[in-house]
Amino acid sequence: MRRLPAVAFLASAALIGAARQPDAPARLFRDITAEAGITFRHHAAPEKKYIVESMSGGVAVFDYDNDGRVDLYFVDSLTVETANRPDAARSALYRNLGDGRFEDVTDRAGVGHPGWAMGVCTADVDGDGWQDVYVTGLGANHLYRNNHDGTFADVSERAGVRGGGWSAGCGFADYDRDGRLDLFVSRYVKIDLARLPEFGKDKTCEYRGIAVQCGPRGLEGESDFLFHNDGDGRFSEVAAAAGVSDPKGYFGLGIAWFDANGDGWPDLYVANDSTANFLYVNQKNGTFKETAFPMGVAVSEDGAEQGSMGVALGDYDHSGRFSLHVTNFSEEYNALYRPEGDHFSDLSFRSRTAAVSLPLVGWGNAFFDYDNDGWLDLIAVNGHVYPQLDRVRMGASAGYRQRKLLYHNRADGTFDEVAAKYGPALTEERVSRGLALGDLDNDGGLDVVINDLDGAPQVLHNELAGRGHWLIVKLRGATPNTDAIGAIVTVKTGATVQKSLVQSGSSYLSQHDMRRHFGLGAAEIADSVEIAWPDGTTSRRERVKAGQILEIAQEAIRK
Amino acid sequence: MIPLLLALALSADAPSQGRDRATLLADAAAALEAGRRTEARQLLKEAADRFQSVSALLQLARLQSGERDAAGALETLQRARTLAPNSEEVLSAIAQLALAARLPVPAAGALEALTRMCPDVAQYHYLFGVALMTAGDTVRATDSLQTADRLEPGRSLTLAALGLALNNRKQFAEAKTALSRSLEIDPERGETIAALAEAEASLGDVEAAEQHARRALELAPADPTAHLVIGMVRLQQSRYEDARDALVKAAAADPQSAKADYQLSLVYARLGDTATAERHLESYRRKLAETNARVKAMRTDTLPPAVKPGGGR
């Protein structure tokens, strides 16, 4: 991000040092939203009388113009009052100008009005080397094909991925390993805007005695979609045949594709609100088997169904496998599931990540190494769904607006929650939803972008002093999966082995920068960088210097 | 036998018309004293019907309760409550009877009224907390038990119940504190020791958890929580056969527990016995649905809005 002149910085630091108490918060993130020119505002009805007004929206960090700088896309939503005026909501695409500022290019790009939008995921769907954008929402989803000239064309109808109903999470992956990217879309609740459940009226429309919006319990859930990429720009909806349709209509939100059982094939995790979560294990024949219960990732440690929202993946303990972090509703801890053999164990409390999450309603989340020490830290953003809570603040329960959680990895399987150490960028109480990561200024520090339900988003620039060395790996996969979605990057430095997965869609309805970031600590050179491409082939580089964005193309060095 | 039947018949036919309320109650007491329970019941019913006597209804309920007719007794007391909605005696009787009969929903309804009528009586807050916890509303249970602890600090039972509620809410560190305080006062209560073991196991202190679970089992060999803790510790240690054995005991000791079934589904899955794992999963789902239905009943039917627990989620 744009740097202040050194002299000015030192002068101001001295002044601040003179004025503040010795325990002033250390600087980690600085909220640069306004100075970066981000004027996007998420629209939401003030009272959130209907569940459909509480669940948006996602955010994407991706490079739409292939200029090497990641851009931002914020999803906006309508309200019941504005439901018939699509222009009342304006999602926004911001181009990264590279000098710390962003330019609103929404209108030119033609991605401003996807309707009542919820989430976003990106991928080079047609294999042309440019990232396309998929936006989920109420009524219809939109696939915006990148025209390579700063504009997009809505090809959802032709591609057959419009969906319908209330779509939420999305993510692309090549589940059948035919080289083409397929698309999973989770859906939430069946909603008829003409017959909405009346606020506070029904049995399920009270929260601790307060009249609130109804649902999701008590409302009918939606099934999910799996769109198979047929290779001609069209997709076929195959969820039922593949065994991932969710015929019981659980309340689907966040999703993540990853290899859960280590067999090299993409499996799928779906976070369901107020119902058990799904883990679909790929049967390598175009079908999946739902195994969340036997694998220990369906419910809480003591068997309680949780209101799950966001999903994050990370090899936080250098085990070589990806653990799952799932954000949940208040009074339900955020869950950390660690893979152990053929199943997962719930280490939420033992990792010291759970207790502090209990009063909060969690949404976007991600593992990331904010201090570049080589160990993945963890962030989760929060905010309730009932604004009415603030009128009847109850005991120690958090209110409508809530702070963020930032966990520092202690490198021993446990975390310290350290948000308070870093001041208001993290402790300010907000109503956050989507969260996405990316290195906005390519300085080796991971930045965080958050879409809030009520009003302005947050762009948090990582300004931690004394970060470790770093390496960013940008993959160029074989056509048509040019993003190399599903590839695993392994970086070795001494005895430390880190793994990271290229993903489309995760967190809460959001998209991270697909470039893989690694903190290297004190190491100035990574001993090796190895890529396991989605088709099973591998590439390897040795003695890679830190402090660079390393590009590796699959075709060029395929073994 | 014949004299008895005759006596009953005579008793049933005996004209009580004309007796006033006090006489009816006195006669009922005398009948009860003499072991003529049928006659006593009839006299009390008559007093209740003719004079709308709350006292008669209370005595009748006591009689029914003594005869293990909890449902009948509760119905009688609900009738008394209709006549005297603010009677502490009636509400207290409903609460005690419902709790003894493991009917937390009506108990909570009565106790909620009692805590409002008598906000400084710690016992009512304690019992309200216990009722709510039994019904599955651990959020309100915690609030109520904390109030009880504030009103009457250092009461072992309140602290133990608070620890159990906090365990259910996954606030294990706070639960550990409450349970340890309870055990300082009453160190030999097996249920409390088992709950402490549960908190410790969840916090990752496996050694202390196992030690306390074993101690709890010495005091109460069938304690379901202690068996559950041993099972979960063994599961963490990948000692699946031992985990299974402990969890089977936990399930047997508390057949209503969905927790034990869920853990058994995991352990059988680890052992490769998918059929048994599936069976426990189904049992877990059924029990979970029963708990949800109970909480829904609490939310919708019995309690006034001020005490209705979590809604749409």
Question: Could you please describe the fold and organization of this structure?
Answer:
- The complex is a heterodimer of chains A (559) and B (313).
- Chain A is mainly β and 559 residues long.
- Helix content of chain A is 7%, strand content 36%.
- Chain A has 7 helices and 37 strands.
- In chain A, the strands form 10 sheets. A 4-stranded antiparallel beta sheet of chain A has the order 1-30-29-28, with no helix packed on it. A 4-stranded antiparallel beta sheet of chain A has the order 2-3-4-5. Chain A has a 4-stranded antiparallel beta sheet with strand order 6-7-8-9.
- The longest helix of chain A is centred in the N-terminal third of the chain and has 14 residues, at 6-19.
- Residues 1-22 of chain A have low confidence and may be disordered.
- Chain B is mostly helical and 313 residues long.
- In chain B, 78% of the residues lie in helices and 0% in strands.
- Chain B has helices spanning 2-13, 21-33, 37-51, 54-66, 70-83, 88-100, 104-117, 122-135, 138-151, 156-168, 172-185, 190-202, 206-219, 224-236, 240-253, 258-270, 274-302.
- Chain B is elongated, with a radius of gyration of 24 Å.
- Residues 1-15 and 302-311 of chain B have low confidence and may be disordered.
- The chains are: A mainly beta (559), B mainly alpha (313).
- At the A-B interface, strand 12 and helix 5 of A face helix 9, helix 16 and helix 17 of B.
